[in-house]
Amino acid sequence: MSGAIAATFPFDAESMTIRHLEAVMEFHLSHRQREIVLLISEGNSNKEIGRILDVSPRTVESHLQRLYLRYGINSRAALVAKWLRADPAASAAMSEAC
Asked: pTM for the whole thing?
C-alpha cells in the first residue's frame, strides 16, 4: 500500500485486508455525521441528539436521510452496523463513550 493512502488512516493500514480498506474508504463520515452515528449507537433519539449537539431534531433527521441514501440503507441499526464494520476505530469510540 502506498504511504499516501496509509497516512490518511488513523490506524495500521498495513495490517488491513484490501476488502476492509475498501469498506473504510467507501464509508467516509464527516465529523458531525460521526458524532450522530455514535450518539445513535448509544440509543439516543433524534431529539436527544439534537439537544446534545445543539441542532434541531430535523437537522439530525436530514443527516440520517442523506446517509441512508448514500449507503443504500434504511434504518439506524443498519447505519451503525455498517459504521462498525467499516471503521476499526468505531468500536473503540463506542467503548470509550460507555
From this structure: 0.65
